[in-house]
Amino acid sequence: MSAALLELLETSSTATETDLAATLRERTAAALGETADLLQDDDLQTALFLAYELRYSGLRGIDDAWEWHPEVLALCASIELEFEKALRERAPMPELPAPGVESVAAALFELTGADTGPSVSRYMAKKATDEQAHEFLILRSIYQLKEADPHSWAIPRLRSRAKAALVEIQADEYGGGRFDRMHSELFARTMRGVGLDATNGHYVDAVPAITLASSNMMTMFGAHRRLRGAIAGHLAAFEMTSSQPNRLYGNGFRRLGYNADVTFYFDEHVEADAVHEQIAARDLAGSLATDEPELLQDVFFGAAAGLYVDGLAGAQQLDAWTAGTSALRAVDTASLPA
Length: 338
What we know:
mainly alpha; 15 helices
């Protein structure tokens, strides 16, 4: 299916485009009908990631006009329908609080505090080998090299206190207007510091479907106005489960002998995310659910889905590492094109 999408995007013939579009629609329907688990389906998640990337930095050699082409939008819509359905069915939802800034914040802190997902950060701090640390960065690069971008889709879709809170968080994520302080650039510096390629999308073929699903979920939430509650809840949970893990990640890289050029990204997030979690929980998610109580359920859906998918991704990582195998797909990452 992802191959059919690329064939369509690369065509310059109107006649050929019609045939390729028909092939893509057929393969999309077949893939959705046959998949055992959409969240773990390499082909479906890769196709959705490629289609979404047209909305970010684009695909090399592909005309930007494809971004809003009806065939691309139809592909996204067909996958998103089943993707959202799977997340709503599988992500464990907590009991919803009454709408209110403090009640919503308290419930979010309870939800994230009760998260029993696998601790990749503790493993990184104490046990990870240098090769596993490289794999960790490769897996994280899918989102981190465009850090904050999926959540920024929500800015024009929010109003009042929630909008101001999101802008406050994002201003920090983008370095307060300084390129060298943008969190995505700090992560790129970490990758370069260990000898990895920091080009956006360089390692897409190396990561498993669940890693792409985590990134795709954020874009899906952010790119739809009706899911603005979900992207707010996702960001709240993301920030509330970030500060302490980043401390451990930094410690892990120091244990392996890396200097501040590599660890600064993680050290920066220890303090930044401790502040962001309060803003995200109260001023963003809490205010949004108070001002638009019909979005309360989606706020918690976004938070729960984020915890659920990232828990699956973390479990796969740790299962592979403790078994002595790679957490990446079976490709030669050194041979991937720049």
